[in-house]
Design a protein that fits this description.
There is one protein chain. Helices cover 33% and strands 17% of the residues. The protein has helices at residues 10-21, 43-53, 80-89, 123-132, 152-159, 198-205, 213-219, 260-276, 291-307, 323-335; strands spanning 4-6, 26-28, 35-39, 62-64, 94-99, 114-118, 136-137, 165-167, 179-182, 189-192, 210-211, 252-257, 281-284, 312-316, 340-342. The strands form 2 sheets. The chain has an 11-stranded mixed β-sheet, with helices on both faces. Strands 13-14-12-15 form a 4-stranded parallel β-sheet, sandwiched between helices.
């Protein structure tokens, strides 16, 4: 397949929108990460997304809309909580999981009766959805399991020849995927942490917001495989990133956790040891409270180290007591396959 490389000009976005309407696949920039889009109501097009990414078909997609009022195409559920979150955080990096309308294909939602919806804060994305005239289902525009793409060159490296078009825009402003909050139960529950924190959601809603139990286990460095005796084959994730291995670089990766000076010393020790064994080692170490910078740079750093051909990546853990730090650590631990050492 020949992939069209497009710009963010209105003329090129019109070409991309026609591809979406015709059942094709278009990778496009958002403020979080690049997405791989298809018509959310076209079951065959959505199936092509799974195929292009090598993505498990029970992993639900997030549906992107260009106007808040378009949420009515996707759900009959419009509660005061939904309205409050729209008013406070849309357009922006917040996905709401809500009850879906029956018209949405099961393939789009991973077989669930819920759908994740968000309105991106990126003009090229908004223009694409507007011109296509349909909501766009879009997971991250990478091969499944590899680091999420925050730059057009990362998308091209993964998907050139596998999709119909790639819109080349700016580097993504946020750098990690949207916060996903489930609004289908009495207590709003974060299924995937992001730049919009539990504290921010609580302030907007005026009520307690919880983390999904799988995230609580992950914060203890326990793998996010289903708990409570549910087998992986039976577990149905309500949000992307809850079930399968994610964000993994090609290199082996180890996260070092502890007091900052101890972490730095241990990373230097492990780096020297591995280099003596002939391994090429890359290091990811952010400033102590540079959580926003870490969110912006983490996936790009993984990609760059892969491109440099390193054999091992040593990463310094961030504090997960901060909401954004917790979100970055969620990605970091998954990237390392929960391979962590405490010092």
């Amino acid at each position: 397949m020949e992939t069209k490389i497009l710009t963010t000009s209105k003329e090129d976005i019109a070409i991309a929108a026609r591809i979406i309407r015709d059942g094709g696949l278009v990778a496009f920039p958002t403020e979080t990460v690049y997405g791989l889009g298809a018509n959310a109501f076209d079951e065959d097009a959505v199936a092509r997304v799974y195929e292009a990414k090598g993505r498990p078909s029970d992993n639900p997609m997030i549906v992107h809309i260009s106007r808040a009022s378009d949420i009515g195409q996707l759900t009959r559920m419009l509660s005061p909580e939904i309205v409050s979150l729209i008013d406070n955080f849309w357009p922006g990096p917040l996905t709401m999981v809500i009850k879906k309308r029956p018209e949405i294909p099961n393939r789009t939602t991973g077989g669930l009766d819920t759908v994740g919806v968000r309105m991106p804060d990126n003009q090229a994305a908004i223009d694409l959805i507007n011109m296509a005239g349909v909501p766009i289902a879009a997971p991250s525009a990478n091969l499944s399991g590899s680091p999420s793409p925050t730059r057009a060159k990362d998308v091209i490296a993964d998907l050139d020849g596998r999709v119909d078009a790639i819109i080349v825009g700016d580097d993504c402003r946020v750098g990690i995927e949207s916060t996903v909050v489930d609004l289908t139960s009495e207590v709003p529950t974060i299924l995937r942490p992001g730049i919009i924190t539990a504290e921010s959601l609580e302030a907007a809603l005026g009520k307690n917001v919880e983390y999904d139990s799988s995230l609580k286990e992950a914060s203890k460095h326990v793998a996010l495989d289903p708990a409570d005796g549910v087998s992986e084959s039976d577990f149905q994730p309500k949000s992307p990133g809850m079930k399968y291995k994610h964000y993994a670089p090609k290199a082996d990766m180890l996260v070092v956790e502890g007091r900052r000076e101890d972490v730095a010393a241990e990373i230097e020790r492990l780096k020297a040891l591995n280099e003596r064994l002939g391994n090429k080692v890359g290091v990811i170490m952010f400033e102590e409270r540079a959580f926003i910078e870490a969110a912006h740079d983490f996936f790009a750093r993984l990609r760059d180290l892969d491109n440099e051909g390193v054999d091992m990546i040593l990463a310094g853990a961030l504090s997960d007591t901060d909401g954004v730090g917790f979100a970055v650590m969620n990605r970091m631990l998954k990237s390392a396959g929960y391979n962590i050492v405490k010092v």
